[in-house]
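TASK: fixed-backbone design
INPUT:
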């Protein structure tokens, strides 16, 4: 018997179920592979641009703050010493070379597939028939999540809008944004810990930190075509 997910409409009413391909629902991956993928995502998000100045790079008077002797005070060389306010930093951060960690597509797919499968097996993923709205309405999205029983961090996935580009035998599907995507994003952005993403943009970290997922029926089909 195959795995099925509960299906809701936009009003939060349960209207049936959707069968999920067993190759997605039962997918698993080596825990080290998933960890390496998440670490690479987080590391590649860093800018490595933090920069502080040492005392040799500070512009300040080189005059001694007070006489070397005669006052019973510790000797001081200049106001750029790190113990003074406005002085140089000791062992402060400096820009680093590019430490980009490469993750190939096969590993990326395996990690995302395993993380999504875990949500399916835990029962923390549901399907909504459509997220089409005429205008942004936070109340509609909030009501949907409440009816699904999702109170914590939620990741919402929508299907992409694609156009086909190509010359002769070479075809390329290009995903583009649409007004409908903007409406859903605006409807969800005022709800704490709720994130909306397209299938093509989803990453394993967003899936891992989410406590629940809401995907459109078309987005689920797109996931299966991409990950299987």
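OUTPUT:
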């Amino acid at each position: 018997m195959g795995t099925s997910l509960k299906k809701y409409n936009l009003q939060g009413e349960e209207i049936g179920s959707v069968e999920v391909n067993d190759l997605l629902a039962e997918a698993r991956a080596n825990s080290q592979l998933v960890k390496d993928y998440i670490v690479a995502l987080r590391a590649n998000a860093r800018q490595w641009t933090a920069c502080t100045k040492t005392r040799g790079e500070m512009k300040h008077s080189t005059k001694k703050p007070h006489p070397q002797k005669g006052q019973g005070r510790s000797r001081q060389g200049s106001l750029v010493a790190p113990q003074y306010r406005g002085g140089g930093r000791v062992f402060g951060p400096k820009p680093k070379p590019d430490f980009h960690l490469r993750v190939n597509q096969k590993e990326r797919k395996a990690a995302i597939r395993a993380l999504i499968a875990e949500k399916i097996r835990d029962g923390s993923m549901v399907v909504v028939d459509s997220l089409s709205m005429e205008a942004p309405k936070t109340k509609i999205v909030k009501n949907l999540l409440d009816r699904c029983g999702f109170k914590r961090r939620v990741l919402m996935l929508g299907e992409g809008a694609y156009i086909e580009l190509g010359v002769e035998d070479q075809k390329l599907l290009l995903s583009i944004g649409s007004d409908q995507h903007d409406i859903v994003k605006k409807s969800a952005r005022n709800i704490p810990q709720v994130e909306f993403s397209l299938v093509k943009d989803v990453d394993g970290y967003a899936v891992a930190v989410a406590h629940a997922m809401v995907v459109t029926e078309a987005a689920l089909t797109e996931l299966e075509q991409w990950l299987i």
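COMMENT: The helical segments are 22-25, 31-44, 105-122, 138-148, 179-188, 204-209, 217-227.
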